[in-house]
Amino acid sequence: MAIPLSILPAKNLATIIPQFPENPKTLILEQCKTIKDLNQIHAHLIKNRLLHDPGVAENLLESAAILAPEPMDYAVSIFDKLEEPNSPAYNIMIRGFTLKQSPNEAVLLFKEMCERSARPDGFTFPCVLKACSRLQALKEGEQIHAQLWKLGFGSNGFVENSLIHLYATCGEVGVARRLFDGMSERGIITWNSMFAGYSKSGYWQEVMRLFHEMLEMDVEFDEVTLVCVLTACGRLADIELGEWIGEYVEANGLSGNPTLMTSLVDMYAKCGHVDKARNLFDQMPRKDVVAWSAMISGYNQASRCRDALELFHEMQKANAEPNEVTMVSVLCSCTVLGAVETGKWVHSYIKKKRMKLTVTLGTALVDFYAKCGSVESAIEVFRNMPLRNVLSWTVLIQCLASNGQGKRAIKFFNLMLEKNIPPNDVTFISVLRACSHTGLVDEGRRLFVSMSRDFGIEPRIEHYGCMVDILGRAGLIEEAYQFIEDMPIKPNAIIWRTLLASCRVHKNIEIGEESLKNVVRLEPAHSGDYILLSNIYASVGRWEDASRVRTQMREKGIEKIPGCSVIELDGVVHEFFAEDNVHPDSEEVYYATENMMKEIKLAGYVPNTSEARLDAEEDDKETSVSHHSEKLAIAFGLIRTCPGTTIRISKNLRICCDCHNATKMASKVFSREIVVRDRNRFHHFKDGSCSCNDYW
Ligand code: ZN
Ligand code: ZN
User: Fold this and answer.
1) Does 572 lie in the same domain as 540?
2) In this structure, which ligand is nearest to the CA of 615?
3) What does the DSSP assignment read for 147-185?
4) Average confidence (pLDDT) over 357-364
5) Parent domain of 484
């Protein structure tokens, strides 16, 4: 079948092929790189009238649809010219469409095939079922299932396997399992389809059970199986089986499989054996982004946030590109540590790399800015998110609530309702907090009722706690007390503690005493509880009672939790404790603090002596309020940052009255915004006032 070389351009494949084979498949496999090459063979076949031979036509079709990497257009043009395409031709096209990411076309072609009475065969069904799996088209799959049963392919191993895969992918694991159990012979692929189905639906217990079955039946498993089982071990914290697999991997020389090793790292990390995970991780010669992410999120979940960030820096040095999962873990660590600079860097990196702002990543960013007190940045990220879910909205509402912008929080809550996103129980906690922080009593009452009436959410103890807080803060102490008495569930210590705090603000001694009694009855009280009651007495001048409570507290062996404030400067976290000399620059810090106190006194600040007096009585050494940890941290921030820079502090306890007053004054005198995150909320100090309106 030689063709004249002259009609072909030089350096064409034909120049090196003197003879065209009748089967273009061999040629494609050996020589063809492009559609153009195929085109020439096609032309040649037409010219020589070879295309009428169904075998030849089929080969050409297979070359175009499956072997050539191009899209299906060319194959379609060949297929359309076939006068009466037979089943093999349809099969090739269906396979090609599935292979080349057009499963929709594959299913449509199958429909056409049946209508044109080309009989589907044992090759057709696995292909079209695979297309259905890709599309998660359960209904179509079920129809095909019925059809193949009628045609007698119900016990064809390939077909059954494709069916199991289809049902498992579409979340119908029960159906998949029935098919699985009905099979007389099951290969490893079938087992793995079943494992994949359970994993996809999060049925981790079932994965374990199936694996034990496999072991009992002495069926051989492979690396795909192990990856699946390791994931389940991680989710269920089943370290025993996980370790068994770890030993198996080592004993059978499988340590070179990076996917398997990554799964092991992930399993150990999720089971809390972070150091063991790190050990394996370090042994991996090549680590992909999944391995890095597994390790970083392992540290994050184990609350070893500093290690997580350090490993992230190593990852960058190793030039590994982080992905969404990495970024979410890193942001969570930044949030916990209050590492503002690193978190901002992560944000700019996400922008620079044009990473997709998915719901998870976007929400993690909003949460980060929210917990660092950067309300405007949180809102900006939220607005730029292409998709948001109930968690994204809740995080933002929580952010506004804890940053003293209750009205705005409620505005966003209403916006959420307008967008038809139903709030969940956590959203209600956030929006009720917004009401309490802003003193919106009626709004709070309304929301509390609406929660169960309009959304079917039964209030939990946290919601009752919010209501007590709303009433208590507004000075409605008696009503709050009655509210607790009328609660359908038993109040816990937190509820009484909340009321106790309100009694302190509104100087209600009687209910304050009652509240402390209840706190002590329900759980070993914290030092803070006694101090609150003692402060109530002090605030009305009952010094003897105040010191009696402090003595009681000492007698019970309850120690005061030392206050600790943290400030991050240039990526370094500095910790300050009241009256401590641990900080390397403590002399300078105390000098700066004295200066700060002097300046704010000139501007009208008067130290709050009531609490200082009690502390002096309590401790032998003279504890002065002017050395509370947040004052040290703020003074340090003032001398170490440029004028005008916002100072951000986080504190482990509730900020005391005196520090609150002093910080208000400092924000005015030094023209600085000062953001303090205390145990409960944010305080944004600016121009001598605070976002909490002295209401915390
Ligand atoms: Zn203080
Ligand atoms: Zn405040």
Assistant:
1) no
2) 1
3) HHHHTT-TT-HHHHHHHHHHHHHTT-HHHHHHHHHH-SS
4) 93
5) 460-555
